[in-house]
Amino acid sequence: MTIETQRLKVRHADKEKDAENYFRLYSDAVTMKYFKKPENMTLETTRERLITENTIECLTVFEKTGAFVGYCGLKSRFTPREATTADQEAVILLLGFYTQKRYGPELFRRLEEYAKETLKAPHLIGIVNQGNEPCLRMLRNVAMTDATERLKEDDFVEYLHILPQGHVLYFKQF
After folding, report:
1. How many independent structural domains does the chain possess?
2. pLDDT, tens only, 71-97
3. Cα–Cα distances in Å, from 29 out to 15, 54, 94, 131, 166?
4. DSSP 37
């Protein structure tokens, strides 16, 4: 997957080149406010995590200036009944400094395009801490729908088992 916008360039994560940036990301208090910080995080465990991250694509995001911004990717989830491909979860984690620059929606739209056009995913989903109002606002602004009330319906019942307590499920059907 290649993503480039007017302001950002994105490339595949590289365990040697990116470990220090990801360690800084996971150590940033603003960034991790709504995320569970990985336990016993060291530079070495960060490097190993880059190898085993269970996303289809773990992509490192930079400004065109070369400054590290964060990461994004798509995580394959469930294949709904009648579908031939899996739902894709959009994952975006940015350093706190960059959250006010509207990079999230910019990246999200590119992930959405890739999930729909290339992967032919039936749904794009987002799993968000219910207290993370900036992220919830972004999801609403990119026309995602709160599916928390629909979790017992056939297409979403699988998500009941993976949705962490205190989180909500947003989705977009293609």
Report:
1. 1
2. 898 888 877 666 678 899 999 999 998
3. 22, 24, 11, 15, 19
4. P
